[in-house]
Design brief:
The chain has 165 residues and is mostly helical. It has a three-stranded parallel β-sheet with strand order 1-2-3, sandwiched between helices. 18% of the residues are buried.
Amino acid sequence: MYNYWSWFEVGVTKEDAALGKVIVVCLEEIENSRPFFIGKVGSHYGSTIEINDPIRISNLKERWGDWIETAIKNGLSITEIEMLYGVLLNPKDINAYFFIKNDDTEREKNEKLRNLISEIRNNKKDYPVYDYHSVDELGEQIKNEFRLLLNELYPNQEEISNLDR
């Protein structure tokens, strides 16, 4: 899955999907990108996964905890599982931002999507949440927030080159 505003590609291949490794790849990518997280919610709730193999469930629980089995059994989308793992259940503070598409059409039909948006907007650590209307607006918002974050993390811009920054 690759969106043109992304800074890196999430490496879910067709082979990974065929082998049922989507959730593993997604959660590993979150680990690789810490302490940063950008959560995007569009008009649709997203794909869910079904795992009936007790060994696979056991492996997931061993690596990520009991919550993952509950999330899968409750039919949470991969997107919601990513947001839970990356930010909402994460006890550590990270540089997290959420972007929610301002489009009520599909949301009215999907209770899980409405609940996810509510959970994001009411997150306990008060991570910033922004609304967007188009992909172009989303890209600009992410770019602006990332620049602000870079200025905060690296305030002495004169001391380093733009490339190093």
